[in-house]
C-alpha cells in the first residue's frame, strides 16, 4: 500500500537550539539517511518559518519547521477492526495484533486511527496499544466525552484488564508488581522504557488462570493501576516472568545486554480484554469486553 505522503509540522524545542537542520532531521527521523535528508533540503522540501534552508542552517527555539515526506509504501498490516460498543459519545473497537494504533515507524494510513476515522470522522483514541497487542481501544466521538474520560483516566477511575501468556511458574496465584519504570540505554534507540530504580511508580496486579507446565508458561489476567509505556511487559519480566516470545524484555525487566530488538517487534502475547468506566454523558457504569484470541484462552 502506497500512501499519499504527509506534511510534518513542528516547533523547534529549546533543546534543539543551535543544531543544524540536517543534524536535527537525521537524528530525529531515522527512516532516512543523512544523505537523503541533505537531498530533500537542497530540493527546497524543508522549510523553516516558511523559508527554504541549507543543511547548515542553525535552528532557533520556537521556529516552525515544515517538511513534506513524499508518498511511501507502508509495511503490511491487518486491514480491518471490530466494533464492540458504539453510541453518539463513544466508540470501542477490537484492534487486531499487527495493526498500529497511531502513525509512526513507517505507518501513516495503515493504522487503527486512520481506519476508524474513515468510519467515524473526528474520533479520538483515549489510549493506545502496542502494535502487537490485540484487543480493546476506546475512542471519544465528542470533545465533551474526551474531556470526561480523560479526567477518569487521570484519576485512575478506569478499570483495565489484560490477558497475557508469560513464562515460568509463579509461587503464588495472585501477586502485585510495583517496580518503578523509566528509561534505560538501548543500542539502537538510545533509550527505552524498562525497569529503573528510582523512576516513576507503577503497579500491576496479576492473577494466574492456568499453568501450562508442558510449555513452561502460564495464562494470566492482569490489572494495571497505572499506564506506563510497556508496563505489563516490563513488570512481568521484572518479576522473573517475561511474556512468552517477548524479543525485548528479559528477566529483570530490562533488555538483555546487546539486545537490538525494538519495542514494536512481534513475538509477545498480550490482549486488552476489558475496560470499565462511567459513561461520560449518563454517568452509568459501562463494561466493554474483547474476547482473547485462541492462544490466550483457557484450555478447559
Structure in words:
This protein is of the alpha+beta class and 300 residues long. Helix content is 15%, strand content 32%. Helix 1 packs across helix 2 (34-42). The longest helix has 12 residues, at 143-154. It is globular, with a radius of gyration of 21 Å. The two termini are 41 Å apart. The model has no long low-confidence stretch (mean pLDDT 95).
How many extended strands? Answer: 18
Report the principal-axis shape: globular
Radius of gyration: 21 Å
**Oligomerization category of the chains in this entry:** single chain
- Helical content (DSSP H or I, runs of 4+): 10-25%
SSE sequence, one letter per element: EHHEEEEEHEEHEEEEEEHEEEE
Strand content: 25-35%
Mean pLDDT: 95
Count of DSSP H/I helices: 5
Structural class: alpha+beta
**Uncertain segments:** none
Give a quick account of the main beta sheet: strands, pairing sense, barrel closure: 10 strands, mixed
Alpha-carbon distance between the two ends:
41 Å
Amino acid at each position: 500500500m502506497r500512501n499519499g505522503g504527509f506534511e510534518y509540522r513542528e516547533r523547534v524545542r529549546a533543546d534543539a537550539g543551535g543544531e543544524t537542520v540536517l543534524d536535527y532531521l537525521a537524528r530525529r527521523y531515522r527512516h532516512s539517511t543523512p544523505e537523503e535528508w541533505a537531498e530533500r533540503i537542497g530540493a527546497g522540501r524543508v522549510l523553516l518559518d516558511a523559508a527554504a534552508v541549507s543543511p547548515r542552517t542553525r535552528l532557533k527555539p520556537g521556529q516552525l519547521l515544515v517538511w513534506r515526506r513524499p508518498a511511501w509504501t507502508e509495511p503490511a498490516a491487518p486491514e480491518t477492526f471490530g466494533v464492540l460498543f458504539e453510541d453518539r459519545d463513544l466508540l470501542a473497537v477490537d484492534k487486531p495484533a499487527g495493526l498500529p494504533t497511531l502513525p509512526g515507524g513507517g505507518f501513516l494510513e495503515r493504522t487503527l486511527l486512520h481506519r476508524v476515522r474513515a468510519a467515524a470522522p473526528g474520533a479520538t483514541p483515549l489510549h493506545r496499544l502496542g502494535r502487537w497487542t490485540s484487543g480493546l481501544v476506546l475512542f471519544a466521538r465528542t470533545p465533551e466525552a474526551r474531556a470526561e474520560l480523560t479526567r477518569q483516566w487521570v484519576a485512575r477511575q478506569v478499570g483495565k484488564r489484560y490477558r497475557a501468556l508469560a513464562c515460568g511458574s509463579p509461587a503464588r496465584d495472585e501477586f502485585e508488581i510495583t517496580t518503578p519504570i523509566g528509561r534505560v540505554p538501548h543500542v539502537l534507540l538510545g533509550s527505552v522504557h524498562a525497569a529503573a530504580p528510582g523512576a516513576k511508580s507503577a503497579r500491576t496486579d496479576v492473577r494466574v488462570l492456568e499453568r501450562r507446565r508442558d510449555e513452561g508458561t502460564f495464562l494470566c489476567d492482569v490489572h494495571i493501576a497505572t499506564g506506563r509505556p510497556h508496563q505489563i511487559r516490563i513488570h512481568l519480566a521484572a518479576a522473573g516472568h517475561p511474556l512468552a516470545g517477548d524479543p525485548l524484555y528479559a528477566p529483570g525487566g530490562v533488555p538483555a545486554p546487546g539486545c537490538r530488538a525494538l519495542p514494536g517487534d512481534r513475538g509477545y502475547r498480550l490482549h486488552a480484554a476489558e475496560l470499565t468506566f462511567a459513561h461520560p454523558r449518563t454517568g452509568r457504569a459501562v463494561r466493554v469486553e474483547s474476547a482473547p484470541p485462541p492462544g490466550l484462552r483457557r484450555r478447559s
